Amino acid sequence: MPEYSDSLKNSRSLSVRIEALRLEVQELVGKGVEHPLFEFKRELSIARENLDDRLDFIKLLQGVANSGGQEEHCIIVGGDPAKKMFYDVENCSEFDHANVVSILSKYLDPVPRLQIFNSLLTKDGKRFVLFVLDADQPRPIVLKTEGARADGKARLRVGEIWIKRGTGLFVATRADIDAMYRSRMEEEAEDRARKRLKHLAEISALGGSAGKVSSQAPSPELFLRPGAEFRRFIEEVIAEKDLSRLGMLVELAREWLVEGWDQIGARRNLQAQRLDQLAGLNLILVEEFFRDKFIPSLQSLTALGLLIIKYNQQPSWLYTVAEILSDAFESARGLQSLKNFDASREHAVAWWRPGLEIYIAAKCVASYCVHRKRHEFLPALLRRTAMRIESDDRETQKTPLLFWPLSVYTEFFPNGQAVEGRATFFWQQRVGASWGSYFGSFENFISSSCQLEFILELNSYLGTNMLDDKEIAKWLSGQSAPIWYSYNPDLFSYSLNQTSPMAEMVLEWVKSDSKMQEISVNPGLMAAALKSRDLMSRHLLVGGFCDHLHSWQSRYAMQHGKFPPFFEWPSRLKEAVQQNRIESKRQSQS
Length: 590
Known about the structure:
Helix content: 40-55%
Distance between the termini: 41 Å
Number of strands: 14
């Protein structure tokens, strides 16, 4: 498939850009390629006498403009990828920019941002029309005038907000509208932040005190004070794309989170008698290191990861942060000396506590990816694996780091569960005080966490082959180092309403292998699950999983003496669930 974004984003002059678009469209049509960024209409008229066509086009253009994303969208009149050919557009004059904007102004508020090229020619001289809708749209774009067809039936209604998903147009849900407003607020906040960073850079250029901070290497003291000054430092590093200082920040984190335990002897497998003799010295040393070095370093590293996502930097930057978190978790597995002390003893640090803190940090960063809808960052954390931290330090099968790589016997979670939900505990213990401002509220964190849990449990559902799928079974049997995919999601205390936004996105993403890979703990597992499935089968897969998740929550509630909460999946998901039930019943009877 042609690289649309590269060819257009790198085009600086208007003439070069138009030529790139013209060639791109012809290549797509010639190869019969359907692309989500390109909408093709074989023929179209927006003349007054063709009212039905005009109203349909207004609805389509509104839906495309409201669909979101970070790329331009194009509507082409005259091309037909199904036939792999162009049809000469004889009414190009109807699509004069002033005429189109005049029509749109009557029906839409605000008018979408677009460019119109109505005199383009193919290589063989056929005329076609190209609409280019900016990625940055003033969403939501709302219908302000009613439009009725020639037969009197209403086609457009005042207040409707249409949005394009895949190949269809749908009335925007409340979640869609909330996302549009949230995106606008976040863009405004980031614009203010960029202006603030630019101001800091200008001060730096003038040689002020801020410039001295900006130009210096990160000091250990700065890294161990994860406050406003440290955040400003990271923002300047990000604004300048200074990979050298970014690397130094990461190495400071490694020094204390990974190697620090060796420096204080906490990873030595010493005899209990020797440890008892040195109990006072060792316990105080460990406590001070944990409090003054480990926790501040973890707070700083996590803030770095959150800011990389916030300012939408290269996902590879987050891979570096995730690598340190993963290495730190592995290092925390070997804290042999701590296991010789009762955690209730004065100055004692529980042997599982460092691992739990790292896990909370990793879940926080992953939840923020979901909160900001920047799912392209998720693989950096989703694809990390780890052995569980066990009281006897035995080696176990690895499991995805974001599952539950800790012993079920910790004092924190009897039987591996928190009464009010693990995410609530994480917020109360660490996230709220250390990184809560990134989410804005406790409710936002819980919502993001629940959506992340939907992703994790979907991967567990596939990895444990609940589908009894031959392709998945074949893939699992071919793994040289099997991964433990069983998981108990953190959804027993939260309404599944919290997961619905993610569930709806997955129902849409399942059409695209690339989008599903972004939420996969292993690319091979997801590829095996989708390999032989057509679009309907993929919808049934999502419907079956949603049904499984609802049934699991209901069973869990009953087993623990609770009445299952009333819940129904939203319309499209409910339909997928019902279709899967019908298909499952049909197969069982055949």
